[in-house]
Amino acid sequence: MSLESEEKDQTEKKLITMRDVANAAGVSISTVSRILDERLPPSKSASAEKVRQVARELGYRRDYVASSLRRGGTGTLGVLVPRLTDAVTAMLFEEIAKAASHRGYFAVVATCGDDPQQERESVESLLDRRVDGLIMSTCRLGDPLPQTLRERDIPHVLALRTDGVSLSSIGDDELGGYLATRHLIDLGHKNIGLIGGPDFASNALNRRKGFEKAMREAGLTIQPQWCCSSDFNIQSGEEAGMKLLRTTPAPTAIFAVNDEIAIGVVAAAHHLGITIGQELSLVGYNDIPLVSRLPVALTSVRTPLEHIASNAVDMLINADSGRSLRTTIPTLIPRKSTSSPK
Fold first, then answer.
1. Do residues 73 and 48 make contact, with C-beta atoms less than 8 angstroms apart?
2. Pairing relation of β-strands 253-256 and 227-229?
3. pTM exceeds 0.70, yes or no
4. Which of 59, 94, 295, 317 is such that its CA lies 20 to 30 A from the CA of 265?
């Protein structure tokens, strides 16, 4: 290779810096930094568009490592979920990872199995790795951990569940529970059962509140023998389903506060020879991809996890202390698992 060709090759490989963009655009480095910072709302001014155009023409790529070091951080967000075998929390992490990447951050995940001691150990492990903040879908009502994080001034956001104090990004679970129950009432059901989640989870309790509100509004009696708590998993849903469906009389409809519980009810109904969508109407919650592909597609309440994730990342990065709660509105998705009582 000739010297001229080698020099040309080295020039083409030269890392384009923010200073190069600033010089070409005729603005200051701080102006370029502000305009190209993806964490900030994009400016629509002529000068901002010129800077972005120059950056594209020069082939500028933001150095996120250097950027995070200038901010005094690592550019890494820690995410804590109960378990990745749970479809909802696995999907939530994927959405958080996407939202973080779009803002120049990298997300790492840890699990705790919904165990308070393991949760504290996982938090410390993430902090030891110098994450810039935490997003946690593990909050248990009455657990002192969020208060401890606030006292230690550790940036954190609660997702899916909330303690009512820390920054939180959640779905409107009370509205979702109301929509699910109202759907069953509108179909003509009066004997409606509830399989709730664990009592330590704010989302489970709020979905129960929505159920109770809809029943009261319709003047329907809530039968204690048709209501029970369970864990957020298929096995617990099956056990609870067997319990409710063996009562005499049995409910003609059940609202399960998450889809995995509902899938467990499907298994219980199959074992007892009860046909979902005909002899029993069933509504789940979260609308995970599997439920629309069941032999009898499941009616479910959908809360867009991408919105919850995006809000959580924004709140963490921007320390949005002026707005401690962001709520995403759910939508009922009717399918063949619900029908009028026979």
1. no
2. unpaired
3. yes
4. 94
